[in-house]
Amino acid sequence: MHDNNIKVQEIKDRVKTFVEQRNWQEAHNPKNLAMSIAIESAELMEIFQWLSIQESWEVKNSEQFTHLKEELADVLIYCLSLSNRLDIDVTTIIEEKLKKNEKKYPVNEKND
Ligand SMILES: [Mg+2]
Questions:
Q1: In total, how many domains does the chain have?
Q2: What residues contact 78, with CB distance under 8 A and at least 6 apart?
Q3: Cα of 69 from ligand 1 centre, angstroms
Q4: From the CA of 104, how far away is ligand 1's center (Å)?
Q5: Which residues form the domain of 99?
């Protein structure tokens, strides 16, 4: 857990450096980054458009899988960039939201 947290910070720093070295800070404002997360999410969805549920599972074993991983990475990179610009600790917000979700959606004991 702790080691993963260090790795997240390393990736966040790398994303920050990538943006700064290209002088993209002005374009990478919260509005544009939020829009970019949605746009990259749409690119991810486009891979599955018109596929059946069964076909969506088969993407993992197709030549489209590399494309899927790249679009997922694009979404995650923009998420980390937004967290950089707004000084948000992603580990903390995920842990807090998971706690909230666990309360909101308690385990149904009937299913155990
Ligand atoms: Mg993309």
A1: 1
A2: 33, 36, 37, 40
A3: 10
A4: 33
A5: 2-105
* pLDDT(5) > 90: no
Kindly state whether residue 110 falls inside one of the protein's structural domains. Answer: no
- In this predicted structure, what is the pLDDT of residue 105? 96
Q: How far is the CA of 109 from the centre of ligand 1 (A)?
A: 41
Q: Where do the DSSP E strands lie in the chain? A: none
How far is ligand 1, taken at its centre, from the CA of residue 99, in Å?
31
DSSP secondary structure code for residue 27 in this structure = T
Span from the CA of 34 to the centroid of ligand 1 (angstroms): 14
Q: Is residue 111 part of a domain?
A: no
What spacing in Å lies between the alpha carbon of 55 and ligand 1's midpoint? 21
Task: Please say if the pLDDT value at position 112 is more than 60.
Answer: no
The pTM assigned to this predicted structure is 0.89
How many other CB atoms are found less than 10 A from the CB of residue 26? 7
